[in-house]
């Protein structure tokens, strides 16, 4: 089961850079996280929902591949989608592409829904499946 891709646009600015003048490796994680928050929030699972339900996203494992450097004042698009979701663990793929559509970095994130009170992963709820694009939004 694969979700539709969510797109998030970012302009790279000075605070994203390292001393080599390109995006710092740790900043890629921050940018990917911002894109994931935009994705789930736009699908009704923002911070207020997490506080109401006591359940929110957690990352279990990350693999990043750096393919092409990104420099200051470049505009990038981050595409995010679920590749698969089995019981309590989903695989989210994220790609960072430049203005020409060239792949600059991709990430594979094993994620789950974490119960803040029980302190453990729980099976994906219907609302969570909507948040990650595996079920349609109901208005």
Task: Give a verbal description of the structure.
It is built from 3 helices and 6 strands; from the N terminus they run E-H-H-E-E-E-E-E-H. It is of the alpha+beta class. It has one domain (6-131): Roll (Thiol Ester Dehydrase, Chain A), CATH 3.10.129. Strands 1, 2, 3, 4, 5 and 6 form a 6-stranded antiparallel sheet that branches. The radius of gyration is 16 Å and the shape is elongated.
Tell me the series of helices and strands, N- to C-terminal.
EHHEEEEEH
Approximately what portion of the residues adopt beta-strand conformation? 35-45%
Q: Mind telling me the CATH class?
A: Alpha Beta
Integer-rounded radius of gyration: 16 Å
Low-confidence stretches: none
CATH topology: Thiol Ester Dehydrase, Chain A
List keywords for this structure.
139 residues, alpha+beta, Thiol Ester Dehydrase, Chain A
Short précis:
By secondary structure, the protein is an alpha+beta fold. It is 22% helix and 40% strand.
Secondary-structure map with pairings?
Blueprint: E1 6-11, H1 25-42, H2 47-53, E2 55-66, E3 75-86, E4 89-97, E5 103-115, E6 120-122, H3 126-131
Antiparallel strand pairs: 1-3, 2-5, 3-4, 4-5, 5-6
């Amino acid at each position: 089961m694969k979700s539709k891709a969510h797109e998030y646009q970012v302009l790279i600015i000075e605070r994203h850079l390292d001393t080599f003048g390109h995006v710092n490796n740790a900043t890629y994680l921050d940018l990917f996280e911002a894109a994931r928050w935009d994705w789930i929030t736009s699908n009704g699972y923002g911070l207020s929902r997490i506080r109401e339900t006591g359940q929110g996203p957690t990352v279990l494992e990350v693999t990043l591949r750096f393919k092409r450097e990104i420099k200051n004042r470049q505009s990038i698009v981050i595409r995010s989608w679920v590749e698969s979701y089995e019981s309590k663990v989903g695989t989210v793929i994220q790609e960072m592409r430049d203005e020409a559509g060239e792949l600059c970095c991709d990430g594979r994130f094993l994620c789950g829904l974490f119960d803040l009170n029980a302190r453990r992963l729980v099976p994906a709820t219907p609302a969570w499946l909507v948040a990650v694009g595996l079920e349609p939004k109901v208005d």
